[in-house]
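Hi all, long-time lurker, first post. I run a small reading group and we've been trying to get comfortable going from sequence to structure in the token notation. Rather than ask abstract questions, I figured I'd post a concrete chain and ask someone more experienced to write out its structure so we can walk through it together at our next meeting. Sequence below, copied exactly:
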Amino acid sequence: MRLYPKKGFRLVTIVSTIIVFSILLTMIISIYSAYIVSKQALINNYLDNNYQHATELANAAGNILGTMQESIDALATIWQRENKIDQDLLEDLYTNNKNYFNSIVIVNKDLIVNNTVPATSGVKAGQQLSGPINNTLLEIQIPHITEPFMSKDGRWIVLVTSPLFDKQERYYGYIAGTIYLQKSNVLQGILEQDYSSDGSYVYAVGPKGNIIFHPNLKLVGSNKAADEAVWKVMAGLAGKIEFTDQQNQTFYTGYAYNMKSSWGVIVQTPASVISVPLRELLQKSILLSLPLLLITLAAGWIITYLAVRPLQVLADYSNRMVDDWKSEALPPIRSGTYEVKVLYQSIRFTTRQLQKYIVKLKNETALDGLTGLANRRNFDSTLETWCIGDEPFAMVMLDIDHFKRVNDTYGHLTGDRVMQFLAVTMRNVSREGDVCFRYGGEEFGILLRGCNVTRAYIVAERLRELLHGTVSPSGELITVSSGVVAFPEHGKTPNDLISHADEAMYTSKREGRNRTTIYQKEITKADNQNEVKSAEEINV
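-- Answer (accepted) --
Happy to help. Here is the structure in token form:
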């Protein structure tokens, strides 16, 4: 009678399979981790380079526009000496400035052209001008750089202007240098770059989001205010983002704002640029790892076979004894439990690699996916750590007023952009070492290390005033209601601080919203006004 009618898997096969799988899994995780790290490094490199390049170009464009404004102001001064500039002199002055301007024109307050150079400028002496741009120049009567506008002959133009006053300081009209945006001009020499190798390109926008310079001349004059980088520049911000346009094409974008010109410069690179180096990196990693992988697999199988061989010998001996009932000596068995040690070492090695990968994943989940701020888990951990320490700190809790109306009116996508806009503004008013976080929904906050309640109130007010004075992505102003607490005077535990900050924040909402309240055990109007007064005195 056969006690074991059917053989199962041999132990050497099971153990060898586990070791091979462990080695393969470890190798795959290592290659994948290197791939992810390299990809992020490439993305960060493009973002940093584009942001730095945008800043440099914005400053250069602002400087050249400042020089152009000075040149036009100088021509206005020459005109004022004699209350005129004859045509010959104007042509000489244009010759000296034609590197800056495509044409120069003098217009009186009745919008009649007095002089113009060159003859191909598109306007003639005695011609009557019209349009909102000209009317605006008559009204403001100050040096001014206009928004891009289309002339009657279909050209997109920017004017650099200076008012004209006679010797009795009576307003006469204005003198303007023109920049033809769709022809060769001085700005192209600064902004136009050869990025054909990786597809990067530069474009510039005016304060209302109209394109002033673009490699594709057909886009000059079009409005891009809806693009994320453009509306951030229009808000006077500078930074870097990973941006997906309406054609679902992703770019690594750097943007910068120039205060002198009120123009913004955007430098962006298509995300597809990193696909080739990443693919090459992956291929090289696999090719370099393959010989080591094969050697490791072979060595692992041989060692496993030798380690488990005694058990295999014992199993074969048992089968022979059952089949033949022969009495034969039991082969010597040495290191009977060695296979367990080998398996343990292999699993432990694999586990360590997996733990490193899990730690990396946990670090990546510390941020809020929508705003990039610290998430609730990160906030709870940080607040608990700070409460254990002896260093004082303050906390601002804030809530977007009437945020449900934004979602109901403009949709949740716009609501998300409003929260991203708030997150950017929070980072701008906070310091290095402070923690900006999203508490949940439309509720946010800032942890301010080494900060007292008065300083925290100033930061909260600065944030509130900046939001109240800047148009959000919804096209409207948003306001926030804030509550301020400090450790340890307003609480020594996270629960106390959060509860008191919420209480102060809801006091702000009850008293009309768009305000900041410092927590007190009995919050009264008079006490709160005293805190505000003290904060204002310290801020001064």
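A couple of things your group might point at:
The two ends are 101 Å apart (CA to CA).
Confidence is low (pLDDT under 50) at residues 1-5, 339-348, 523-540.
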